[in-house]
Design brief:
- The protein is built from 30 helices and no strands.
- By secondary structure, the protein is mainly alpha-helical.
- Helix 9 runs parallel beside helix 11 and helix 27 runs antiparallel to helix 29.
């Protein structure tokens, strides 16, 4: 077995050696064949070169190598998409050699020159030389090369994001003359943001949103896009999306506070909710807190536009409105060379546009320089003339935008403050002009009036301003007068809050008590609303000061002018009205002096005129006639009763009559009834006499009473007469019924 294995191994080794020898021979054969092919190619090439040289020597039409290189370069320019690098001097020579300016070669060369100049200017721009670079850019055909300009600006901003505000200003200036440029940059940035957001590319998202933010600051882009971007980033909040949103807010938060206050407040509410959830990293939570601090400081370190780049007026700017959902066309075709059939005509048109743009800028600069030189030379002589010119040419803002912005800032400052001291400190930082102090006082009163219940915060705030500077006390006094004049227009809640606010100012002596002299407390000069205002004002004063101190303040001889209208002594009627008013509101203790004054006034007899005498005589005569008629009626009724009684008792005349046989004799019971009737009649007479005496007393009192009491007495007399008549009719009916029943 061992021998057999050894023999097999030897056989295997021999076969392997044979295979190696075969492979080596095959490799050698392949090398030989390759070397032979290379030698044959060399021979063919040398033979071709020799034949070409022979032909050239034989023909005698050889061309120089320089022309061949120019053709190659022109062909490279024609066929390469990026273009071959050619020095500028050689490009100019090539353009001079081409006679047909509408040819493809000439347009290609001019396109390459335009691209290089635009890229070079974009790479050189900064804050200091932006005005020079803009003039150089306008010299190039930006209508034809707007695709190149937008591409180079976006690429430069992506490479150096710290110069984003410079590139945004450059695009904003170009947008004033060529709005298509600003629109194209805005479209491409939106498309780039969409792609980066889908790919979760945070760095590209940050650079793109930063550029969009500065376009919003320059008002090239509308603020709607910024709010959409923030909403999209914070809808499904992650660490990266919140970081991008905060980077975006730092750049354009100040501008959004001006343009869309509600929108930015909703964004910050969303950030506050995300912070309270606590699901993000600590680093991102700290970034959110820093963002709230930046907003609290009003973006002092992150202004929307710095002063050096604030070069465009709002009236000259074109704002483009686009949304993230709209389909956008990036227009990539204009980035590449395209043949123009009307190339020469379009170039001439742009030269006219360029001349107009640059001439306008040069004339503006010359005017500015001339004005500066005139001011330096004739500064003392032209001060009055300049003042008159500015007054005559002053622009009057009838829209009151500055006033509305001021009131909005004051309101937001008041609502965002925790206490009155912080609020006063913030409002003093606004550096109000002298004419705006009144608006501040009006805003404090209006904010206090709009509350559901009175808040002491506003009273303390107004007191603080009045104590800091006496200039604030006079506007509050004027507001008190204007509010009292228009108090009938106030709602009950607003009226109560305003009254309590001014009561606080009077208690703390923040405003003078002389303002109360404007109030005249009488029936003619007050309305229901004004009386309610006075009631709440004095009740608040008495609750805070106490009735004793308030009475002492009213009796102060130095303040008698202030209280002459509230406690009148000129007319007893007004005095009574004031006493009744203060007594009805529970402050009757303030009217002791008025009561003493009213008692000390001598009573004067009012003289009666002739017309009043005649009217009194007529009334007396009418009253007497009424009494006589009542007496005659009473006598007639008594006579009838006596006649009835006599007939019933049976007189001799009645018995001697022919019908004496049929007479009816009264029974003892009947006699008792007749006596009872006579007793009742005597009672009736007594009651009638009492009524007469009462009437006489009423007549006597009516003579000395006033017109109103006379009318009242007449009504009472009529009522008594009606009652008597009713009483008589009822009694007569009862007696007649009884007689009938007896019979």
């Amino acid at each position: 077995m061992c021998f057999a294995l050894k023999s097999n191994r030897k056989a295997i080794e021999m076969s392997v050696k044979n295979m190696d020898s075969i492979g080596s021979t095959s490799r050698l054969s392949l090398k030989k064949t390759n070397n032979q092919e290379m030698n044959e190619k060399k021979k063919d090439s040398t033979s071709d070169v020799m034949t070409a040289n022979k032909k050239s020597t034989n023909s005698g039409d050889s061309e120089p190598s320089v022309k061949r290189s120019k053709q190659q370069e022109s062909m490279d320019i024609m066929h390469r998409t990026g273009g071959a690098y050619i020095p500028p001097a050689r490009l100019r020579l090539m353009q001079k050699d081409i006679t047909d300016k509408n040819s493809i070669e000439y347009q290609r060369i001019s396109w390459e020159a335009l691209k290089k100049s635009i890229n070079g200017l974009i790479n050189k721009v900064n804050v200091a030389n932006i005005a020079i670079i803009v003039r150089e850019l306008f010299k190039e055909n930006l209508i034809r090369g707007r695709g190149l300009l937008c591409r180079s600006v976006v690429a430069a901003q992506t490479a150096s994001p710290t110069f984003t505000h410079v590139y945004a200003t450059l695009i904003a200036i170009c947008n004033t003359k060529f709005p298509k440029i600003g629109e194209l940059v805005f479209k491409r940035l939106i498309i780039q943001f969409r792609k980066s957001f889908r790919r979760n590319d945070k760095q590209v998202c940050i650079t793109t949103t930063r550029f969009i933010a500065h376009l919003v600051n320059q008002q090239v882009a509308h603020e709607v896009v910024s709010l959409e971007i923030l909403t999209l980033l914070l809808e499904n909040a992650t660490n990266d999306s919140v970081e991008v949103a905060i980077a975006f807010l730092r750049e354009c938060g100040s501008k959004l506070e001006e343009l869309s206050r509600r929108g930015i407040s909703a964004i910050f509410d969303r950030l506050r909710f995300i912070l309270h959830e606590g699901q993000l990293d600590k680093r991102v939570q700290y970034m959110i807190e820093v963002m709230f601090a930046i907003r609290r400081d009003k973006y002092v370190d992150h202004p929307s536009v710095i002063a050096e780049l604030d070069l465009i007026e709002e009236s000259e700017q074109f704002t483009h409105l686009m949304t993230l959902d709209e389909p956008q066309d990036s227009e990539d075709k204009i980035n590449v060379f395209q043949f123009d059939n009307n190339f020469q005509d379009n170039e001439e048109k742009y030269k006219a546009i360029k001349k107009e743009i640059l001439d306008d800028e040069t004339t503006d600069d010359e005017d500015d320089d001339g004005e500066d030189s005139d001011d330096e030379d004739d500064e003392d002589d032209d001060e009055e003339g300049d003042g008159e010119a500015t007054d005559s040419n002053a622009i009057i803002d009838n829209t009151e935008t500055t006033l509305r912005t001021l009131r909005r800032d004051i309101y937001l400052t008041i609502q965002s403050s925790l206490d009155f001291e912080e609020c006063a400190h913030k409002l003093l930082k606004l550096e109000l002009k002298p004419g705006q102090v009144v608006e501040l006082c009006h805003m404090i009163v209006d904010c206090a009036a709009q509350q559901r219940t009175y808040m002491k915060f506003y009273g303390l705030l107004a007191q603080r301003f009045c104590s800091l500077n006496s200039d604030y006390a006079e506007p509050f006094a004027e507001i008190f007068k204007s509010c009292y004049d228009t108090i009938h227009r106030f709602e009950t809640n607003k009226l109560r809050n305003v009254a309590k606010l001014f009561a606080h100012l009077l208690i703390t002596d923040a405003i003078s008590w002389v303002v109360l002299s404007y109030i005249k407390l009488n029936e003619e000069d007050t309305t229901s609303s004004s009386r309610v205002f006075i009631k709440i004002l004095f009740q608040e004063l008495s609750e805070s000061m106490g009735l004793v101190k308030l009475n002492q303040r009213i009796k102060d001889p130095t303040l008698q002018e202030a209280f002459d209208g509230l406690f009148p002594r000129d007319d007893p009627r007004n005095t009574r009205f004031a006493i009744n008013f203060f007594t009805s509101i529970g402050l009757g203790g303030l009217t002791d002096d008025l009561r003493d004054h009213l008692k000390a006034i001598p009573k004067t007899v009012v003289p009666i005129t002739s017309t009043e005498m005649n009217s009194n005589k007529r009334r007396k005569s009418s009253i007497e006639s009424d009494s006589d008629s009542n007496g005659s009626d009473d006598n007639g009724s008594s006579a009838s009763t006596t006649s009835n009684s006599s007939s019933e008792s049976g007189s001799p005349s009645s018995s001697s009559s022919p019908s004496s046989s049929n007479t009816y004799k009264l029974s003892p019971k009947r006699n008792h009834r007749s006596s009872r009737h006579s007793h009742q009649n005597s009672k009736k007479q007594k009651s009638r006499e009492r009524h007469r005496k009462d009437k006489d007393n009423h007549h006597k009192s009516s003579k000395s009473s006033s017109k109103s009491s006379r009318r009242h007495l007449k009504q009472k007399e009529k009522q008594s007469k009606d009652k008597d008549r009713e009483y008589k009719s009822t009694k007569s009916s009862k007696t007649s019924r009884r007689h009938h029943n007896d019979r």
